[in-house]
Amino acid sequence: MARLKMNMVTIWNNTVPINANEVIECAHSHGIRVIMGFHWGWGRKELSLTDANDMRRTREEVVRTYTEQYAPLDLDGIYFQTLTEHLRTEQEDRSTALLACDWVNHIASALFDLEPDLYIQFGLHAASIREHYTDLRTLDRRITIV
Question: What is the pTM of this model?
Fold first, then answer.
């Protein structure tokens, strides 16, 4: 029986692992791409997808975190989750899907300004999207939904 090889691993932590460089080097030596992730508001109950100031502050935090902690690594991309881990499909008369795409596009645009070819994965909780899945078409096509 042939063994299947994994070609990508996503490592999601609150901070960069201490041995990140060794993990990346080992993975790359086996032909495995490494995606590392951190939150873009995930789990922070004080933030709201409807608040422009929260989006601005989160964008600043993400850019700072990426620039200081992740950009120096030999990564193949980044992964993140944002504020979709709930059951509300609408907020202030807009779908959570549309609001999340607005956040993700706004924040990712700053990263694309730094690295135009950056591979970005967006972890999405489907329970907050449901019938509004068509609103996800507004997501920047360079971003992969996971």
Answer: 0.87
